[in-house]
Amino acid sequence: DTSAVRSWLVNRYAPNTSKRLLAALRGVLKECWRMGLMQHDDFAKATDLSSVLGESEPSGRALSMEELQKVFDACHRDASPAGIRDGAIIGLLYGLGLRRSEVVSLDLSDYNQSQGIISVHGKGNTYRLGYAMEQVRQLLDAWIHLRGGWGGPMFSPINKGGGMATTRFTPQGLALVVKKRAGEAEGDTFSCHDLRRTFITNLLDFGVDLSTVQKLAGHRNISTTII
User: Fold this and answer.
1) Rounded to an integer, what distance in angstroms lies between the CA atom of residue 63 and that of residue 98?
2) E strands within 67-125?
3) Contact 98, 155 (CB under 8 A)
4) Residue 113 CB neighbours (<10 A)
5) CA angle at 145 for the pair 139 and 151, rounded to the nearest 5°
6) How many beta carbons lie within 10 A of that of residue 128, not counting itself?
7) What is the pLDDT of residues 71-127, one digit of tens each?
8) Which of 124, 127, 84, 76 is nearest to 106 (CA)?
9) What are phi and psi of 160, to 5 degrees?
10) How far, in Å, are 102, 161, 183, 201 from residue 130 at the CA level?
């Protein structure tokens, strides 16, 4: 049965997707074995599948400096609270290479404003420090000045009247913010993760060693950084 599933996946999906789904299948079968729902011999046979060959074309892209400047200009033209907030969000996504989940989880207390250091809570309950360069600090400080010093989420939704909510942004809401500003920049569309890719790519282009980039990006495995 699992061999039939593998054949179906290979014929239907790209190699990377097939590998990911087969890994999920193996994970479910392993839990079944651990819970005593199947014998070890059956588990070994069911998971003894040949590897899926090939690699999918990497998704996403890195932005050029001209594209980035147009996006920041689009935020700057919007003098409303949303424009100031979105400039700071995009500054963190690109300037520190944060994941969107990391941006929405930020609290005001995670930012050391005097030193420009941000405590980032990453995937898998990991923790690292991010260092905001001057331009990012200016964007972030402008938002905090407008936001006020109340404790809670660093970024919150803003209603049409300019009022700020005290609730936390969702990752989906953050993606919509980036999509909106990309449209205003009148360039090719890009995602939150493309800004993270740009951060990593630029560091490597400037000759920063791979292990340092891995730590700054918060990658558990250096192979992810290489990709």
Assistant:
1) 15
2) 111-112, 117-121
3) no
4) 14
5) 110
6) 15
7) 999 999 998 999 999 999 999 999 999 999 999 999 999 999 999 999 998 887 888
8) 127
9) -65, -25
10) 11, 33, 28, 17
How far apart, in whole angstroms, are the C-alpha atoms of residue 215 and residue 106? 19
Cα–Cα distance for residue pair 198/104, rounded to 1 Å: 19
In the sheet that holds 111-112, the strands lie side by side as 111-112, 117-121, 127-131
Could you tell me the pTM of the whole model?
0.77
Query: With the CA atoms of 166, 168, 173 and 179 taken in that order, what torsion angle do they form, in degrees rounded to the nearest 10?
Result: 80
How many of the other CB atoms lie within 10 Å of CB of 205?
9
Distance of CA 197 to the CA centre of its chain: 9
Contact 140, 88 (CB under 8 A): yes
Q: What is the DSSP letter of 211?
A: H
| Tokens found for residue 148 | 């006020």
Please report, in angstroms and rounded to a whole number, the separation of the first and last CA atoms in the chain. 33
Beta bridge partners of 111: 118
